[in-house]
Amino acid sequence: MLDNPRAPRVKQVAKLSQRGARLETGLFLLEGPQAVAEALTYRPQLIVELFATPTALERYSDIAAAAVDAGVHVEFASEEVIDAMGDTVTPQGFIAVCNQFPTALKEVLSEGRDGGAVKLVAILEEVRDPGNLGTIIRVADSAGADAVIITGRSVDLYNPKVVRSTTGSLFHIPVTVGVELADALAAARAAGLQVLAADVKGVDLPEAAAAGKLAKPTAWLFGNEARGLEDEHLDMADSAVRVPIYGEAESMNLATAASVLLYQSAFAHRS
User: Fold this and answer.
1) Which of 111, 124, 140, 190 could join 145 via S-S bond, C-beta 3.0 to 4.6 A?
2) In sequence order, which residues have a C-beta less than 8 Å from that of residue 78 and are 6 or more positions away?
3) Domain 8-99 falls under CATH 3.30.1330.30
4) Which of 69, 68, 27 is nearest to 46 (CA)?
5) Does domain 105-270 have CATH number 3.40.1280.10?
6) pLDDT tens digit string along 82-129?
7) Which are the contacts of 114, defined by CB distance < 8 A and separation ≥ 6?
8) pTM attached to this predicted model
């Protein structure tokens, strides 16, 4: 059992909470039973190392069985070691080290998740909050979107807070990172998608829906939490749409607005 929280191996794992270490190694940190279970189910080949406390492995017997089925070795570690490795306060007895696996821009737009044409994509430009990015990936997965495209000005996909916020959706939906916005929009249009920007300067969502805009294959473009989209980037979209605020709230959280818009498109595509 690994029981020294100051051991070099423990420190190497813990360093993956830092962007520099992730860039250097091509690895990232996975914490908690939910995320580990999703990785074992959907992408077991990505797992380089898997650590667990004996208590956690006994409690989550399904994870133990999945690891055996996937041929992934589980190394026992003490609670102190797991806590030292993790970025969160309570990793709940599981830590995994995984290979990063971004998908090329051309590949994420080549085919929809149902095997047909791509119908719904989220493009994120300068989204800086890890919780927002992770939540939007989770929502895109929930709404049946085909892919998420993250520009180089956004937060690192493999930031531990992003990974946690996806609650496993990172392993379900193709994600491409580090692209230029112009390239992303050009590729989306080449795949037959219109580009709708989420912006307060746009038309109200019910109006866009009534005009039939949401029924078309769509790439939704989401901008920075504080500033939104720059005018030059807004001009690149085919049109802009806003979620109307009927109460007294000053604004709406980016991830919340993205949830509304992605689901409205999903509803329209299935109506």
Assistant:
1) 140
2) 1, 2, 3, 5, 53
3) yes
4) 27
5) yes
6) 999 999 877 799 999 999 998 999 999 999 988 899 999 999 999 999
7) none
8) 0.95
